[in-house]
Amino acid sequence: MTTEATTEAKGTEKKKRPARRVLLRVLISVLLLAILVAGAVAVYGLYTQTHYRTSFYRETSEKVSGDIRIAVISDIHNREYGENNAVLISDLQALKPDLILFLGDIVTRDEDNYQPMLHLVSALSGVAPCYGVLGNHESERIYYGGDRALPERFEAAGLNLLRNSREDIRIGEDTVQLIGVEGTSYGFEEYGGRKFMEKTEIDPSSYCILMAHIPILFEPQLSGYDFDLGLAGHVHGGHVKLPLLGGLYSDEEGFFPRFSAGKTVLSKQQTLIISAGLGDSKPFPPRINNMPELVVIDISPC
Questions:
Q1: What is the mean pLDDT of the segment spanning 138-143?
Q2: Strands across the sheet with 293-301, in order?
Q3: 131 forms bridges with which residues in the sheet?
Q4: Contact assessment for residue 296 and residue 55, using Cβ atoms and an 8 Å cutoff
Q5: Assuming Cys at both sites, which of 109, 126, 141, 201 could form a disulfide with 137, CB separation 3.0 to 4.6 Å?
Q6: Which of 176, 171, 174, 154 is nearest to 73 (CA)?
Q7: What predicted TM-score, i.e. pTM, was given to this entire model?
Q8: Which uninterrupted H or E stretch holds 180?
């Protein structure tokens, strides 16, 4: 090799070395960023195991003459906030609700011991009347897991289960119609939901609350009925909450679901409030930017 060629080769090698250093720095930076993100997700996940937020909603209606406060517990999945849920119970005592509604998935299908949830219901039934519907985890335990006594155990603890049924509740000077519908979006007929709703008389002069565990039941199956307020849970807020876009995913609607959490208006102008839930049924997917949620709804006269 000539001296000129040798000099050219050395120059090329010198050019490659800085490029390699830049690439190495980029790779290290990406790795460190990935570690930081994974760490932040892990810390946030641990935080959400022991903390929740309280979301307040206000509704007005000419059908009520006084203020009514409703607390909503959804998708707690055997989770405890404090020993024996002492923190959650204390917070609900301080909120002084007139009614406590359970929207299903109190238990987790694979956990046989749900005594803490029975204790929670028993304690809260001393705070306010407790009503609720079954979620898919309760249904799977009952119909596929052989736990036929589950509904009776919760009712004995103080939870009035509305399984395709209606209850008229007196709160102050007002009567609230409370309706609970059972089943999934594909099992609305199979589980008797449609037959029940078609024969149920809704008093137009009373405030009517309709509960169903799975939110997509409300559009189109339930939105044609004349209730005032719909309540649902199930989708855990879409698991990951994206800025401006909302929840990322639900089993029924896939990515960017319409129904994930919060308040929406249905086709006949009924209000639907979806709880992001107080627990998780499995470790994955984790909650990201999506705190567990206790929902409180204040209904006031117009």
A1: 94
A2: 53-61, 293-301, 68-73, 99-102, 130-132, 159-161
A3: 101, 160
A4: yes
A5: 109
A6: 154
A7: 0.87
A8: strand 174-181
